[in-house]
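Thanks for the sequence, V.! I ran tRNA dimethylallyltransferase right away. Repeating your input here for the record:
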Amino acid sequence: MGPTASGKTDLALELVRRFPVEIVSVDSALIYRGMDIGTAKPSRELLAEAPHRLIDILDPLEVYSAARFRADALREMAQITAAGRIPLLTGGTLLYFRALESGLSVLPAADPEMRARIAAEAAERGWEALHEELVRLDPAAADRIHRNDPQRLQRALEVIRLTGRPLSSQQSGGVAGLPYRLLRLGLVPDDRESLHRRIRQRFEKMLVEGLINEVADLYHRGDLNPALPSMRAVGYRQIWCYLAGEWDRQTMIEKAVVATRQLAKRQMTWLRGDHALIRVNAEAVELSKLSAQVAQFIEGGS
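Predicted structure:
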């Protein structure tokens, strides 16, 4: 696991070449067909060498969930192990990793009226003030949810207000955990500026490769809209706004780069809170050392 643009796919490919592993994608954008350039989907050549499960499984019109991912991933992992191989879970959708490992609790459905009320409070008071409210109501949840993560913050307050109980106490009663031993590897960049440069360079490369045309094909289908999870993916939503005439090209580029940096920051915050994670320096991966750790794990060590 690791933040966007950290080199997860390249490292996964190296592990495929060294060990009897098969990749299961843990990415909420790679699941969609027709979204290749903007998701940095592996090339046909790479997929021929290292097949990835759970990519290209849905049309962008469809909605996917962490619960559905868990069911799909467990099925794919069972097939891989039955064939005598080892699942290699690779991606940056950290909510999916958590759902897979810890299971999911039964929480109340989204309440549009409550969400609108919380959004109005945020517009008036700011998300930082609402995060302080969460600190008072549910310190454990507040410790996990960054003040700059409005989607999760809104959901936490929504659940608390609907049920009268802390979100953290309700999440502790989920379904059974993952029936596998885990080696948790986190590709974590030490140099933030270097990551920011890679993010910009990667997006500019995507534009050269035809990302605007890719989004235009989706835009002109007629059955998609910017509220769909697929079209909210970073890069796609900014180009959608550009195609709709809301922004000029340079504004679109800057907004896409900033949004990608913000995504990477949220991912890094999440990873720093994972104390069981073996951190791998994204700028200088020591393959021999990492391979030794993986080999020890496969042989039954910790």
